[in-house]
Design goal:
Structural class of chain A: mainly alpha
Largest interface: A-B, 59 and 53 residues
Structural class of chain B: mainly alpha
Order of helices and strands of chain B: HHHHHHEEHH
Strand content of chain A: under 5%
Number of domains of chain B: 1
Number of strands of chain B: 2
Distance between the termini of chain B: 44 Å
Low-confidence stretches of chain A: none
Shape of chain B: globular
Low-confidence stretches of chain B: none
Order of helices and strands of chain A: HHHHHHH
Largest sheet of chain B: 2 strands, antiparallel
Radius of gyration of chain B: 18 Å
Oligomer: heterodimer
Mean pLDDT of chain A: 88
Radius of gyration of chain A: 20 Å
Number of helices of chain B: 8
Strand content of chain B: under 5%
Strand order of the largest sheet of chain B: 1-2
Distance between the termini of chain A: 60 Å
Number of domains of chain A: 1
Chain lengths: 203, 197
């Protein structure tokens, strides 16, 4: 963190928004990882040689969740001088851990909460959107995108500072409590939606 | 003619390749369709059904994940602007499911083609290049969307004119709301059953 300024972290954060663009069946996120890492790893006078080195070292199998890719970038940059074997083992751990965390947190909890909240608003309004519906949808999208940006930025800075230790944030009691609250909230929203729909359909 | 396929291509790009900021999800794009003049009730009811169908599915790069965000916009955008009849409502939902599935196969073919020609389409001087990758990806999606629009538009418009005599008993709206109820019950059952979260 001390060596990498906030401007560089910001640049890396923006690059993570394109990590999925290079997704392929040979190395999954390997090419996307090269794209994200390139500005930091090629800051050398002989940049064409440095670029080839980046490709040689990182264009291999790598999996992540796009939302958690910040942690991957930070941790890989923290260990950029590690040997090939150590880097491979780090990437193997990241591939399995980050994909799983991303799927559980984003697609099983946050996305259903967002979607069910929106659908409840739609049903409340009897599928006739008013100004409140539009403001609610735009607000929820803005909040999700602020969160998406924050988790990427935080992941990079935390990974750069703490390396693999940064992943321990997902084992803290606060994180577990947060996921438990989200799970309960999601189930409550599903129940409210069902009650709402019963009223709409039968009354 | 061009607006719906162009926005559909952008939706597929956003939901699959770049940003992933949820801007392309049906609950957002249905509002855009309403702004473009489509019937509000039909759009929101259809978007709700589609979300509830796919809510327990997780996008995975390697599997053929249905591109329902794209499917919703291209199918609804190709259809009629007035309120859906019962038959149109059912047809639109089936068409979205079908197009979403087809789109996942097209995406797979596109990825395999890009892997073969990565130096020309995605790289610049042997390095991943975001501009060429976005440009060619959008071009592929736009051509695909344009073909779908040309095929779907006359078909969906002709279905709206068919009267099956159910309009006073079950409108498209009430059919969608009932379908939403069943799907919401299924989703709640899925949530309560799955312990490993």
């Amino acid at each position: 963190m001390s060596k990498t300024g906030s401007r560089t972290i910001l640049l890396l954060t923006f690059r993570t928004y394109f990590i999925r663009l290079f997704y392929n069946y040979n190395n999954l996120f390997g090419e996307g990882l090269c794209y994200c890492l390139s500005p930091l790893l090629t800051k050398s006078p002989a940049s064409s040689i440095a670029k080839e080195d980046v490709i040689k070292k990182h264009m291999k199998f790598f999996n992540t969740s796009e939302y958690m890719s910040g942690f991957a970038l930070g941790i890989i940059l923290k260990n950029k001088d590690a040997g090939e074997d150590k880097m491979e083992s780090i990437k193997n751990v990241l591939s399995s851990v980050l994909g799983s965390i991303g799927d559980r947190l984003i697609y099983k909890l946050i996305v259903p909460v967002i979607v069910l909240s929106s659908l409840n608003i739609f049903v409340f309004a009897r599928f006739r959107p008013d100004l409140f519906t539009v403001i609610f949808i735009l607000s929820i999208i803005a909040i999700f995108n602020i969160f998406g940006f924050f988790i990427r930025y935080y992941g990079i800075s935390s990974g750069l500072e703490n390396g693999m230790e940064s992943l321990k944030v997902f084992q803290t009691p606060v994180y577990k409590r947060l996921t438990s609250i989200l799970k309960t909230f999601r189930n409550i929203l599903a129940v409210i939606l069902i009650i709402n729909l019963i009223i709409v359909v039968f009354f | 003619m061009i607006a719906v396929p162009a926005i559909s291509a952008l939706i597929l790009l956003e939901s699959r390749d770049v940003l992933n900021g949820f801007l392309s999800q049906p609950f957002v794009t249905s509002l855009l369709l309403i702004y473009l003049g489509f019937d509000p009730v039909s759009m929101l009811a259809t978007a709700s059904v589609i979300h509830l169908i796919y809510l327990n599915r997780q996008p995975s790069g390697a599997s053929l994940y249905p591109e329902f965000a794209f499917g919703m916009f291209i199918v609804a955008g190709s259809g009629v602007k007035q309120e859906y009849t019962f038959l149109t409502s059912i047809t639109i939902i089936i068409a979205i499911i079908f197009i979403s599935k087809i789109s996942s196969h097209i995406l797979k073919i596109k990825r395999e083609y890009f892997e073969k020609h990565r130096e020309k389409l995605m790289f610049y001087k042997k390095f991943p290049n975001v501009f060429s990758a976005v440009l060619f990806t959008f071009a592929v999606y736009f051509i695909f969307s344009l073909i779908l629009y040309a095929l779907l538009s006359p078909l969906l418009k002709s279905i709206q004119s068919i009267n099956i005599g159910l309009s006073s008993i079950a409108t498209g709206y009430s059919a969608s709301a009932f379908l939403c109820l069943l799907l919401a019950l299924r989703y709640l059952y899925y949530c309560l059953r799955s312990k490993n979260e």
